[in-house]
Design brief:
By secondary structure, this protein is mostly helical. The chain is built from 29 helices and no strands.
């Protein structure tokens, strides 16, 4: 027993070590680290070079210009990045000049703060890149409010900002020209690894003691991550002309890999049976644990591919996964033949299809291994791409969109008002209180305040805690290390950490940022580090309090007010996803592009709904109306999407064979229930007397007839027959139609309960 315990502990230690190694490899090959190194180099080099010529003051301003434009240099198509940085150069130069002109006049400066905060917050209606341009402009304004320049110095200062911004832009574009596919590879690798994490969570359904609520919550959270990663790759590939050149082997291979990983993700979402039913049938056996280990192997294999794609390496299929699937298949066949009875035949059919799904995912993983070689001959076999424009969204500069958002019904408008008032209050407080670096109060408010309460609350906590912990680290560094060269090297490392983690782990980023800024001030002015730390923590605390109060009482935006829109989108997109696939079983033509667009819309809507619900859980309890029904609604929609994804698997191999008008009553009943649910959440009249269950369910009657015939055969000792083959093919299709119909009914019932409370 002691030996077994030691082996168990050793196994845990080995797997933990492997996880750390995997995380390390993933991070050093990620675009986040690349961004951190690029931004650090872009900011530091001007100051270092100009300091060599005794122009440190000029170098600092040039570096600030570079830092401000780096904010808008977020991952995306290169022409979007270039246009964003050019717009940032122009706006930031003008903001630096205008702020320096009004800085000596408190009334004019306060007016500028209010107008700039409102205007640059409103442009967020045009998307995340426009929002980053606005944040960059506000940052430039805040960093210049303490400057009291006159005459020609005003223009010279703005010129230095312009020079720094241009320098960073040229650096970024130059680095891209050296490795034009690198960002797409890194984002695709992250997407593959996010899919692996989602698959790893679904493996939990096969564990002996399953916490279904916790697992579904984790799946919803990871589905949001997968959606975000897929959306980034979609933008990088489908909006980049260079990548879509058919003559480019790398570009064609990346597109095919992404197409395959999206298809693979759909396969990971499949649900062939009620997991509780499977556990009831096989809880006493170890077959479910074998499935659990097999799914974990799939996830680990995807992780290896993801890391290889990010690094630009070739991953090899060792054959271990295929061998494990073969051994599990043999074990399943033996187990089935020894345990199968007339009563549990349907559960074994479901288990067989789960194993088939695992084999299908393994086959797709094998193809991904092959793609990582970027083989020219293999790329020629890749099918001609579909109309990519249908899979991406374009955000034109439409002035009507901005005008339509000038309303208190608009969350963007309320956020713009909120941040304008909060920054004005912060400015007044900075004038009244003897704080050391007053601009940091405004900077804290601008960085913390977000359109959603939950995001602001999270960012506020992370900023405050990160600042305190970072200040403690900075204090220790300055106390024990007195060599400026060593401090400078440490500062560079902290800068890379800050900008690498800014978008993935804000608290750790702030923990790095605080000592980096403390070291910077120390190196520039050799001021007392105790004074710098006190000022930094005090300013951050003041800004955090103002941001929290503004978010709580000043035109707050609660998720409850927005959730109905996300719920409607989820119902509509799932209905479209279902009808697109179900039509193939009635003899309608099946168009692959239409199907994939409907699938993408369903996945996006589900991710948006899950994200909004997760944010709502961070809000005050009094604002979480009908949270129980909402949670049930989100889980039901996740289950609905999963079963529709499962049904889609049978379209190509079996829809033509089983196409029949007998499916129409079931399809019509499902869509009618979803339309009823749509009307409920749209607060429109709805028919509540829909028969439950569907009368004359011909498909279910056919299934029952086949099951009865098969049970008789088993009782007679007939193991293989035409009935057995037909049942194996028809049952999963019929089951999915029935599951989808039942879930649609449950969604409608949940909507009626939601309306009553």
């Amino acid at each position: 027993m002691l030996v077994q315990e030691k082996l168990s502990l050793l196994s845990v230690a080995v797997f933990t070590s492997m996880d750390y190694i995997k995380e390390y490899k993933s991070f050093i090959n990620s675009h986040y680290l690349s961004d951190g190194v690029r931004i650090t180099a872009g900011i530091v080099l001007p100051a270092v070079i100009l300091n060599h010529f005794n122009l440190l003051a000029v170098g600092i301003v040039v570096s600030l210009g570079a830092m401000s434009v780096s904010i808008t240099d977020t991952p995306g198509p290169i022409h979007h990045r270039k246009n964003g940085m050019i717009a940032c150069i122009i706006i930031n130069t003008l903001m630096a000049l205008l702020t320096s002109v009004v800085a000596p006049h408190h009334f004019l400066l306060g007016t500028l703060i209010v107008l700039a905060c409102f205007a640059f917050s409103m442009i967020a209606v045009y998307g995340s890149r426009a929002n980053s341009i606005g944040v960059s402009a506000l940052l430039m304004m805040v960093l210049n409010i303490s400057d009291h320049l006159k005459g020609w110095d005003l223009i010279v200062n703005a010129g230095y900002v312009f020079a720094g911004a241009v320098w960073y832009t040229l650096l970024s574009l130059l680095l891209y020209s050296f490795r034009p596919y690198k960002l797409a590879q890194q984002a695709l690798g992250d997407c593959i690894m996010a899919t692996a994490n989602y698959l790893r969570t679904r493996a939990s359904f096969y564990e002996k003691e399953v916490d279904y609520e916790k697992t579904y919550q984790q799946m919803m959270e990871l589905q949001i991550v997968v959606h975000n990663e897929q959306n980034l790759v979609r933008e990088l590939l489908f909006k980049s002309r260079d990548v879509l050149k058919e003559s480019t082997t790398t570009g064609r291979t990346l597109v095919m890999m992404f197409t395959d990983i999206v298809d693979l993700f759909e396969r990971t979402m499949t649900s062939y049976h009620d997991y509780k039913t499977l556990h009831d049938a096989f809880e006493e056996d170890d077959i479910l644990e074998q499935y659990h280990q097999l799914v974990l192997e799939l996830a680990n294999e995807l992780d290896e591919i993801g890391i290889a794609v990010k690094a630009g390496d070739t991953s090899e299929d060792t054959g271990i996964l295929a061998a494990h699937i073969e051994s599990t298949t043999n074990y399943f066949n033996t187990f089935r033949d020894s345990k199968r009875t007339a009563e549990n035949v349907d559960s074994f059919i479901s288990m067989r299809h789960i194993l088939n799904s695992i084999s299908d995912i393994a086959g797709r993983i094998h193809n991904l291994h092959l793609y990582t070689a970027y083989d020219k001959e293999l790329s020629k076999k890749i099918a001609k791409p579909v109309d990519y424009d249908k899979f991406i969204t374009h955000q034109p500069i439409d002035w009507e969109l901005l005008r339509d958002n000038f309303s208190f019904a608009s969350n963007n408008f309320r956020h713009a008002v909120r941040i304008s008032v909060a920054t004005l209050l912060g400015f007044i407080v900075s004038l009244l209180l003897p704080v050391g670096h007053s601009y940091w109060i405004l900077l804290t408010i601008i960085v913390i305040l977000k359109p959603a309460y939950s995001l602001t609350k999270k960012r506020n906590y992370e900023r405050l805690v990160g600042t305190i912990l970072g200040a403690a680290i900075g204090m220790l560094l300055l106390y024990f290390i007195h060599d400026n060269q060593a401090l400078f090297i440490i500062m560079l490392v902290l800068m890379v950490g800050t900008y690498s983690l800014m978008r993935t782990n804000y608290m750790i980023s702030v923990i790095f940022m605080t000592p980096y800024i403390l070291l910077l001030f120390h190196l520039l002015s050799n001021a007392s580090f105790q004074t710098i730390i006190i000022d930094r923590v005090t300013d951050t605390a003041i800004g955090s309090v103002i941001a929290f109060l503004a978010n709580l009482i000043l035109l707050p935006a609660w998720e409850q007010e927005q959730l109905s829109n996300y719920m409607l989108d989820a119902i509509r997109s799932n209905k479209k996803y279902f009808t697109t696939i179900a039509g193939a079983f009635t003899g309608n033509a099946f168009t692959n592009t239409v199907y994939k667009v409907s699938r993408k819309d369903a996945f996006v809507a589900l991710a948006n709904l899950s994200d909004a619900f997760t944010r709502m859980l961070s809000e005050p309890k009094r604002k979480q109306k009908n949270s129980k029904q909402l949670h049930q609604f989100v889980v039901l929609n996740h289950m609905l999407t999963s079963h529709i994804a499962t049904l889609s698997y049978y379209v190509k191999p079996l829809s033509a064979k089983f196409a029949s008008p007998d499916f129409m009553p079931l399809i019509n009943n499902t869509t009618a229930r979803l339309e009823d649910a749509e009307n409920i959440f749209n607060q429109s009249p709805v028919e509540t007397a829909t028969p439950e269950p569907l009368p004359h369910n011909i498909i279910q009657q056919q299934l029952q007839h086949l099951l009865q015939a098969r049970r008789k055969e088993l009782q007679q000792g007939i193991l293989k027959s035409d009935t057995q083959k037909l049942l194996t093919e028809f049952k999963p299709i019929a089951d999915q139609f029935n599951f989808i119909d039942n879930i649609a009914s449950d969604i409608k019932k949940t909507g009626l309960q939601w309306m009553k409370e």
